Amino acid sequence: MKKLLIGALAGAMTMAAVGGVWAQDTVTLQLKWVTQAQFAGYYVAQAKGFYEEEGLTVEIKPGGPDIAPEQVIAGGGADVITTWMAAGLAARERGVPLVNIAQPFKSSGLLLTCLKEAGVETTADFPGKTLGVWFFGNEYPFYAWMAKLGLSTEGGAEGVEVLKQAFNVDPLIQKQAACISTMTYNEYGQVLKAGITPEELTVFNYRDEGVGMLEDGLYVLEENLADPAFVEKMTKFVRASMKGWAYARDNAEEAAQIVLDNDSTGAMTLEDQLYQMTEVNKLTEGSTGALDAADYQQTVDTLLSAVSPDNPAITKAPEGAFSTVITDGL
Predict the structure, then answer these.
(1) Please, which pLDDT band fits residue 310 given cuts at 50, 70 and 90?
(2) If we measure between CA atoms, which residue out of 205, 250, 242 comes closest to residue 329?
(3) What distances in angstroms separate CA 209 from CA 85, 112, 123, 180, one per listed residue?
(4) Residue 20, exposed/middle/buried by CB under 10 A (0-12, 13-18, 19+)?
(5) How would DSSP label each residue in 138-191?
(6) Residues 99-131: pLDDT tens digits?
């Protein structure tokens, strides 16, 4: 009887292994934007089996102009999301208890890219100009910067006119705006690809202007961090993801191809993805995954220095907005 029982258990274990039904933790990741090299670390981790090695089955959900990751996770559609810290803090103050658990992006890539022929050489040239700004949580750094400069965003000769910019570079190409929002790894390259040379541009990096904010962190709902099983699952997820980012830095061309293979839209070429991968690697360089408390404080201080009806990201210092419980376990 004992032999029969042992044999039955062995058979069951073999079937489980062959059938791939070992209990794998599942993770749903909601990205901030569409499939592109901005998120290469996750696609690489999946393609190279890093998640599988951790016992994880990961679903990566691309974002888009109509998808707000903060709303997706609040509605139960994801375990973890990528978003910018300003948007994460804003959502937290408005009742979605997001907590930053890791920060793969060490540096920010947000730029304001201007045409010199529009008369913009320095920030002193902004008054009277039209500036393109992304919204849906991307506007907070801009409003903080304008507040720092003491410029009204209501237009007029002494202020700036805000153009709600779609996620393209058309307003600059068509000269509807003197300056537009771009990312180092995406739209700036599109401007150059359109035939405008770097010499024809004035480029302001938000980080250099003292209003840089953390981008593309990983966020979960605070209540879930009280569950040890969830913490263990997220530790595995972040560890595998950071391995993916490291691999992407060492193998940019392969990583770009992996991202391209996962993009069903066909909107970008391998050349586009490789350009983006090269630039994104500059932003993830130096990150271990752990959030630098000083970088966090800079984002908070910048937002709080410019609280106004135009800049409603946060109105008070957040509490409990980040945790090292995951990265401490890497």
Answers:
(1) low
(2) 242
(3) 18, 11, 10, 16
(4) exposed
(5) SSHHHHHHHHHHT--SS-STTS-EEEE--SSSHHHHTTS-SEEEEETTTHHHHH
(6) 999 999 999 999 999 999 999 999 999 999 999
Contact 277, 257 (CB under 8 A): no
Provide the terminal-to-terminal Cα distance of the chain, rounded to the nearest Å.
45
What dihedral angle (degrees, nearest 10) is formed by the CA atoms of 322, 327, 328, 330? 170
Residue 271: pLDDT band (50, 70, 90) is very high
**Token pair listed for 243:** 């391995």
- Token pair listed for 92: 């937290």
Cβ atoms of residues 321 and 92 within 8 Å: yes
The strand order across the sheet containing 110-115 reads 161-164, 130-133, 179-183, 110-115, 201-205
Cα separation, 39 vs 33, in Å, equals 9
Q: How confident is the model at residue 307 (pLDDT cuts 50, 70, 90)?
A: confident
User: Under a CB-based contact definition with an 8 Å cutoff, are residues 120 and 114 in contact?
Assistant: yes
**What are 113's two structure tokens?**
């890219």
Nearest to 213 by CA among 99, 285, 302: 302
DSSP string for residues in 231-270: HHHHHHHHHHHHHHHHHHHH-HHHHHHHHHHH-TT--S-H
Strand partners, 202: 114
What gap in Å lies between CA 257 and CA 44, rounded to an integer? 10
The DSSP code for 328 is: G
- Pull the structure tokens for residue 272: 């586009």
Dihedral angle sign, alpha carbons of residues 64, 70, 73, 77: negative
